[in-house]
From TrEMBL:
Stretches assigned to coiled coil: 415-452
GO BP annotation list: action potential; protein homooligomerization
Keywords for this protein: Cell membrane, Coiled coil, Ion channel, Ion transport, Membrane, Potassium, Potassium channel, Potassium transport, Transmembrane, Transmembrane helix, Transport, Voltage-gated channel
Role: Regulatory alpha-subunit of the voltage-gated potassium (Kv) channel which, when coassembled with KCNB1 or KCNB2, can modulate their expression and their gating kinetics by acting on deactivation upon repolarization and inactivation during maintained depolarization. Accelerates inactivation but has relatively little effect on deactivation. Coexpression with KCNB1 or KCNB2 markedly slows inactivation.
Membrane-protein topology: Multi-pass membrane protein
Listed name of the protein: Voltage-gated potassium channel regulatory subunit KCNF1
Keyword Cell membrane: yes
Cellular compartment(s): Cell membrane
SUPFAM superfamilies according to UniProt: POZ domain (SSF54695), Voltage-gated potassium channels (SSF81324)
Any Pfam family the entry gives: BTB_2
Length: 489
């Protein structure tokens, strides 16, 4: 495009002798005047700028349906839109693709493209990825705001059981909702720690007792503490299952499966102890009970429900599967190569510890991972040199993926903090706008709020729509059109 000073539209006679391809379109977007030619704009006839070429023949109604204002003296179309985003969008007429500049909100840029009727397929892939990430963030913010509004609202049409169910769910699942809920969360955390400590202390021989048959077993006091902890875990799980709004999703959730695995061994071992002796030999029952008691270690994973740090670490590991896969591949190749070399080099020594290549795998593993038990070690000079090289390669292979994994952890942790702050910001804006609406006392606003409260009763004391610059469309199904320049905080 080129800047225009006193450009004029050429006069079009009644016979339409002036071709639209030769016309000049003067556009003023947010105070920035630019000139386009019809042949360029008609490459994409469905866009808004291309429609300006033929809108003059339709009169002022056709003109003002496309733009915000029109100056017939200068024949200039005015749009109250973002000029920076517009400079990026018009690249489609010259290069066939669009790139977002840094500093432009992806969601606002998407809205600008929709206004100018330019398809999102012209947006470059790198910018589409940024847009998808921003949309996911807004969806997460909207989900968090919706959950908070659901907790704050009370539906008068709900039955007493539904209200009780919702209160129990908030009480057990949302410690931040009230002081008693925080106390319950702390108690649950303490029970997990106590149960884990009891499981470890119960294996100390000095604290064990001998039964009538001479077998060692846990101290009765520790057994009683274990029973009390299991009773708490069982009651907690049953109450959460009963009060869950989606029981199937609750039952299939990973953390809830961990809860079941932490509780189930106690009841299975109890059943086998009292009933299994009648069906099988006592020694088999004791072995089965001992194997089930080992599964009690699963309860330590229950701490993840109460620790955002463990949840962040889990997410970082999920996002780092590619790096972890590369690490395993490097180690696997190194283990195979250095174990084969070590076996070959050590065959000349009469007291070699490398009996076969598969047996040498163990030496290569503990060497490359810098463990070095010393149960298998080289005795020849070449074997020691091979061991030194494998050690250095192992250090490098382990160090390579550490930085990406740490970056994933920090990025997710910071993202969660930003999303939490953004959700609180949206709620503060809702409260502020609600207070302003009450102070104004507008009849139309009161009617809108009452109508919304009928459609969604839990919004009765909160307005439904956020008016921040980062407007979250997911909180409302209504379409809100803004004529001011779009911006993003």
């Amino acid at each position: 495009y080129k800047m225009a000073g006193d450009s004029r539209f050429p006069d079009v006679d009644s016979d339409g002798s002036e071709k639209s391809e030769e016309m000049e379109i003067v556009v003023n977007v947010g105070g920035v005047r630019q000139v386009f030619y019809g042949d360029n704009l008609n490459q994409y006839p469905e866009t808004r700028l291309a429609e300006l070429v033929n809108c003059l023949s339709g009169g002022y109604d056709s003109i003002f349906s496309l733009c915000d204002d029109y100056d017939p003296g200068k024949r200039e179309f005015y749009f109250d839109r973002d000029p920076d985003a517009f400079k990026c969008i018009i690249d489609v007429y010259y290069f066939g693709e669009i790139h977002m500049k840094k500093g432009i909100c992806p969601i606002c840029f998407k809205n600008e493209m929709e206004f100018w009727k330019v398809d999102l397929q012209f947006l470059d892939d790198c910018c589409k990825a940024h847009l998808s990430e921003k949309k996911e963030e807004l969806e997460e913010i909207a989900r968090r705001v919706q959950l908070i509004l659901d907790d704050l609202g009370v539906d008068a049409s709900e039955s007493r059981w539904k209200k009780c169910q919702k209160c129990i769910w908030k009480f057990l699942e949302k410690p931040e909702s009230s002081y008693p809920a925080r106390v319950i969360a702390v108690l649950s955390f303490l029970f997990i720690l106590i149960s884990s400590v009891v499981m470890c202390v119960g294996t100390i021989p000095d604290l064990q007792v001998v039964d009538a048959e001479g077998n060692r077993m846990e101290h009765p006091t520790l057994d009683s503490i274990e029973t009390a902890c299991i009773g708490w875990f069982t009651m907690e799980y049953v109450l959460r299952l009963i009060s869950s709004p989606n029981k199937l999703h609750f039952a299939l959730s990973f953390m809830n499966i961990v809860d079941v695995l932490a509780i189930l061994p106690f009841y299975v071992s109890l059943t086998l102890t009292h009933l299994g002796a009648k069906l099988m030999e006592l020694s088999n029952v004791q072995q089965a009970v001992q194997a089930l008691r080992i599964m009690r270690i699963a309860r330590i994973f229950k701490l993840a429900r109460h620790s955002s740090g463990l949840q962040t670490l889990t997410y970082a590991l999920k996002r780092s599967f590619k790096e972890l896969g590369l690490l395993l591949m490097y180690l696997a190749v190194g283990i195979f190569v250095f174990s084969a070399l070590g076996y070959t080099m050590e065959q000349s020594h009469p007291e070699t510890l490398f009996k076969s290549i598969p047996q040498s795998f163990w030496w290569a593993i503990i060497t490359m991972t810098t463990v070095g038990y010393g149960d298998i070690y080289p005795k020849t000079t070449l074997g020691k040199l091979n061991a030194a090289i494998s050690f250095l390669c192992g250090v490098i292979a382990i160090a390579l993926p550490i930085h990406p994994i740490i970056n994933n952890f920090v990025r997710y942790y910071n993202k969660q903090r930003v999303l939490e702050t953004a959700a609180k910001h949206e709620l503060e804006l809702m409260e502020l706008n609600s207070a302003e609406g009450k102070a104004a006392g507008s009849r139309s606003e009161l009617e809108d709020l009452s109508r919304e409260s009928k459609e969604a009763p839990f919004y009765s004391s909160r307005i439904k729509v956020s008016h921040s610059d980062t407007f979250i469309h997911l909180l409302s199904e209504e379409k809100h059109h803004r004529t001011r320049l779009q911006s993003c905080k």
